[in-house]
Specification:
Layout: E1 15-22, H1 30-37, E2 39-44, H2 59-65, E3 69-73, H3 85-98, E4 103-106, H4 130-139, E5 143-145, H5 164-169, H6 183-196, E6 202-204, H7 205-209, H8 213-222, E7 226-229, H9 234-237, H10 243-251, E8 256-257, E9 262-264, E10 269-270, H11 281-292, H12 317-331
Parallel strand pairs: 1-2, 1-9, 2-3, 3-4, 4-5, 5-6, 6-7, 7-8
Antiparallel strand pairs: 9-10
Helix pairs in contact: 3-4
The chain binds zinc ion.
Length: about 350
């Protein structure tokens, strides 16, 4: 059965969501969410529990249950100081790829609060992690990475902070007390990693780990291995004049991947719809309207946290196909059952 959503304003093809979080308790709903969103497949990064569970524990069960829900390998960089870390992470990455993982996920704790065995903060570009980045490239696993956070998370936590409500819900994600590296420093660390590992594909979560449009343009030109997803980024992408963002996407249609950041686990519910947690039609429709229309004053997917409206990008059809499906299929080398079946028209 080819999933087709009837509520796209213009697009009529398959969609892959490259950024979701499920766990064993919520994975049964993946098929239903796929129907609602018209998804060909979705890539579950990880269940947002730290430290990550060994991939062997649940991989087989997940694959048997919902073949369109694809998995990532999640390394634990805090073990970087242990003897044998390099060999072990290399082995695990290749084994995970062999067992069906399609990517590797690295979370923002790296560079912010993750420490090694001597309690020292681990920088994103810590050279001891180089074997990990290299092995992901060797194994053909793209690295979906989220480092840093929105710039407002470093600004004073007062009601005029545009992210005030967002931060108030998770005060541990406020870095304005001077105890954390600056966002620009973390981004520079990521740049060093991307530059050092040209054979590894990186996908910067949340429209590129909070780089400005000018910086993204520079990175795209300098690093053919750097890509971005759109997860939880529409409120920022569509704020104010969208011309710079639209021009960037039009100039680099092969570098932007559709993702939502839908999280449905006991540990983490995002966005939080309470009782209506599986009622996601409007959530997906808000994504489609943003990418496919030029409408102004659009509701974005998470207005409760970020109370403003957005303007649509009105992307051309070929760019929508790249964004929604083709880039993910290419970079993740998605298995045939998770991509377009060319015999189905
Ligand atoms: Zn996420």
């Amino acid at each position: 059965v080819t999933a087709v959503s009837g509520s796209h304003p213009r697009y009529q093809g398959p969609v892959v969501d490259v950024h979701v979080h499920y766990d064993a308790a919520s994975r049964e709903h993946a098929a239903r969410v796929g129907e609602i969103g018209g998804l060909r497949s979705a890539i579950s990064l990880w269940d947002v529990v730290w430290p990550p569970r060994p991939y062997e524990e649940d991989l087989a069960g997940w694959r048997a249950h919902e073949p369109r829900l694809l998995r990532c390998f999640v390394p634990d960089p805090s073990r970087v100081g242990e003897a044998g870390f390099a060999n072990e992470v290399e082995h695990d990455i290749h084994a995970a790829a062999g067992a069906g993982c399609v990517g590797m996920k690295v979370w923002k704790n790296l560079g912010l609060w993750l420490t090694d065995e001597r309690e020292r903060r681990i920088a994103v570009d810590d050279e001891r992690l180089d074997p990990m980045w290299a092995a992901a490239g060797d194994a053909g696993l793209p690295v979906l990475i989220h480092v840093g956070d929105p710039p407002e998370f470093w600004q004073p936590l007062t009601p005029d902070n545009p992210r005030y409500d967002d931060i108030k819900d998770r005060p541990e994600w406020w870095y304005g007390n001077g105890g954390f590296p600056k966002l620009e420093a973390i981004q520079a660390q990521l740049e060093a990693v991307v530059a050092r590992h040209p054979r590894t594909t990186f996908i910067g979560a949340h429209f590129g780990c909070f780089l400005s449009v000018d910086e993204l343009r520079r990175w795209f030109a300098a690093y053919p291995n750097y890509n971005v997803d759109t997860a939880a980024a529409i409120a920022e992408m569509g704020k104010g004049d969208v011309t710079p963002v639209r021009d960037l996407v039009l100039d680099h249609p092969d570098r932007v991947l559709f993702g939502t950041d839908l999280a449905r686990t006991p540990a983490f519910e995002y966005p939080d719809f309470g009782e209506r947690r599986w009622d996601l039609t409007e959530y997906f429709d808000r994504h489609w309207r943003f990418f496919e229309t030029a409408d102004t004053s659009l509701a974005h997917p998470i207005p409760e946290q970020l109370p403003w409206t957005v303007t649509g990008l009105d992307l051309p059809s070929d760019v929508l196909a790249a964004l929604y499906h083709d880039n993910a299929a290419r970079l993740y080398r998605l298995p045939a059952q998770a991509t377009i079946d060319s015999t189905v028209t």
